[in-house]
Give the backbone structure.
Amino acid sequence: MPLAPAAASSLTVLVVDDQPGVRVALVAQLDALGHRVLEAGDATWALEQFQRHQPDLVLLDVVMPGHDGYWLARQMRQAESGRWTPIIFLSARDQEQDLWKGIESGGDDYLVKPVSTVVLAAKLRAMTRLLQMQAQLMQVSSELRTANQRLQHLSELDELTGLINRRGFDRLLHAEIGAARREQQPLTLVFCDLDAFKPYNDTLGHVQGDDCLRRIGALLRDACHRPRDRATRYGGEEFALILPNTPKSGAMTFARAIRRMLAGVALPHPASPVGGLVTLTGGITTCIPDAQTTAEGMVMRADQALYAAKAQGRDRFFSFEMQLDTVEQLER
């Protein structure tokens, strides 16, 4: 009988059989069909080949010395980590129970030896179609993941400033509290808002006000040098900074740096009650989260620190834990 035509696409096939003569015959058949072949004569050798080369398909003998094909199929399934590799059992046995046992152990099909070239070619063509469908599904899944990530990014982006918005802030703060709890590292949260922003808008107009918010947002983003530091727009003229691995002393140093950066920009504010420039007032809270630490609790403490800073004259950052603001710290 003439050989069947070559498969539409080439596969890498792992042939596992303890009989060299059987392997030689199968390799010849597969080679004639246009496929690349790997060989193994026992279960240990086969598992090593499977893990190293990740073949597209496995032709697996049932009866082998030591571990049999059913055992090997189970090991292969455990080693796949998300992949699916078609496994076709080869055996001289043709009982229904043998087929059932093969499927239960992780196999996908069962061929009785000696294998007809036409039947083998048909099985390989069918498996090729399944692999192509799998690849297409994985591509679609990847595209959907990318699209979902893009949608999440857009849904958590403040259009005016380009910072993370309130929704993104909530997600990030919960995540960083969990990380800090696991790592037993300090986490700092800073709330700050623009002093007398309504008079700024009333005097200079909302277009200028939007530009001011954009410039403050860029300044706060630039202040977050480390990869996990995040500047967010909490709402209106209020901003929130999430600073992982930042102790309370480091938080005060960070706050002083923000004040220096803002002074360097020197944005005019003709209606400011604390001077002729745009200023920020902020509240700081720092903790090593435990089981009782919540995002709501940290927000409340940062908010209380913000109001304390406002009560002490604005244009300063007040630390809830240190009971000290950036102006007092410089005076000591």
User: Anything to note?
Assistant: The longest helix spans residues 117-155.
